[in-house]
């Protein structure tokens, strides 16, 4: 029997978007990015993305390998999908589960062509038109935001909860909200149609990442996502 590809696994379990941890090395202190990512998964994150805006492709390749090794050491390997932000080259080099691309990055169609049918390709969308185009180009899921102002990406365009609802209604692929999502704002995702929340600072800026992620996961387990 052949093993399922990351994309096939994801299609069978889109609920893996429930609490999507988007990593950031801005708040490491004495910690390593690999240990922070492992703590997020231990705390209940259901999806992981390596996002390091200042890193070169070579650095991303090393970081991905280090995180994968740490997950393995902690018995967490393969527990959640693990994709790379923006850099298709790095994703190809390490055999990542997939990639997440924004509107000004390599196109979804190109990422799909280079990574193949077995990889997960996520795309950022801020409008219904972008969402429909990404779906048509073969995206597996959409990241929609910024829903709330955030210091993590102050320049991110605002996306209203109303537009989020319209996007969820317009596409058949799953959607995660992103931007300013934390313990105080997660409840706003109720009844929008999203499959989950993508979170950077509320996980990676926390002093105790396991505990912060556990709290967010408990909240997400209780949010009624049905429309
Ligand atoms: C899940 C998810 N959604 C949206 C984004 C934003 O991606 P992008 O538009 O490429 O912006 P940067 O992350 O590169 O600043 C994301 N990374 N993940
Ligand atoms: C990458 C990205 N894209 C839109 S908002 C955002 C940052 C979200 O970070 P945070 O969860 O800390 O608000």
UniProtKB/TrEMBL annotation:
What Pfam families does the record point to? Answer: TMP-TENI
* SUPFAM superfamilies, per the entry: Thiamin phosphate synthase
**EC class (word):** transferase
Q: Biological process GO annotation list?
A: thiamine biosynthetic process; thiamine diphosphate biosynthetic process
Write out the pathway annotation from the protein's UniProt entry.
Cofactor biosynthesis; thiamine diphosphate biosynthesis; thiamine phosphate from 4-amino-2-methyl-5-diphosphomethylpyrimidine and 4-methyl-5-(2-phosphoethyl)-thiazole: step 1/1
Tell me what reaction this enzyme catalyses.
2-[(2R,5Z)-2-carboxy-4-methylthiazol-5(2H)-ylidene]ethyl phosphate + 4-amino-2-methyl-5-(diphosphooxymethyl)pyrimidine + 2 H(+) = thiamine phosphate + CO2 + diphosphate; 2-(2-carboxy-4-methylthiazol-5-yl)ethyl phosphate + 4-amino-2-methyl-5-(diphosphooxymethyl)pyrimidine + 2 H(+) = thiamine phosphate + CO2 + diphosphate; 4-methyl-5-(2-phosphooxyethyl)-thiazole + 4-amino-2-methyl-5-(diphosphooxymethyl)pyrimidine + H(+) = thiamine phosphate + diphosphate
This protein's GO CC annotations: cytoplasm
Q: Where does 2-[(2R,5Z)-2-carboxy-4-methylthiazol-5(2H)-ylidene]ethyl phosphate bind?
A: 150-152, 180, 200-201
What's the domain of life for this entry?
A: Bacteria
Cite the cofactor comment.
Answer: Binds 1 Mg(2+) ion per subunit.
Question: What Gene Ontology molecular-function terms does this entry list?
Answer: magnesium ion binding; thiamine-phosphate diphosphorylase activity
Q: What are the Thiamine phosphate synthase/TenI domain coordinates in residue numbering?
A: 19-203
Q: Which cofactor does it need?
A: Mg(2+)
Positions with a binding annotation for Mg(2+) = 86, 105
For this protein, the record's InterPro entries field holds: Aldolase_TIM, ThiamineP_synth_sf, ThiamineP_synth_TenI, TMP_synthase
Keywords annotated in UniProt: Magnesium, Metal-binding, Thiamine biosynthesis, Transferase
Question: Which positions are annotated as binding 4-amino-2-methyl-5-(diphosphooxymethyl)pyrimidine?
Answer: 49-53, 85, 124, 153
Q: Its Enzyme Commission number?
A: 2.5.1.3
Database matches in PANTHER family: THIAMINE-PHOSPHATE PYROPHOSPHORYLASE (PTHR20857), THIAMINE-PHOSPHATE SYNTHASE (PTHR20857:SF15)
- What family does the Swiss-Prot or TrEMBL record give for this protein? Belongs to the thiamine-phosphate synthase family.
State what this protein does: Condenses 4-methyl-5-(beta-hydroxyethyl)thiazole monophosphate (THZ-P) and 2-methyl-4-amino-5-hydroxymethyl pyrimidine pyrophosphate (HMP-PP) to form thiamine monophosphate (TMP).
Query: What name does the UniProt record give this protein?
Result: Thiamine-phosphate synthase
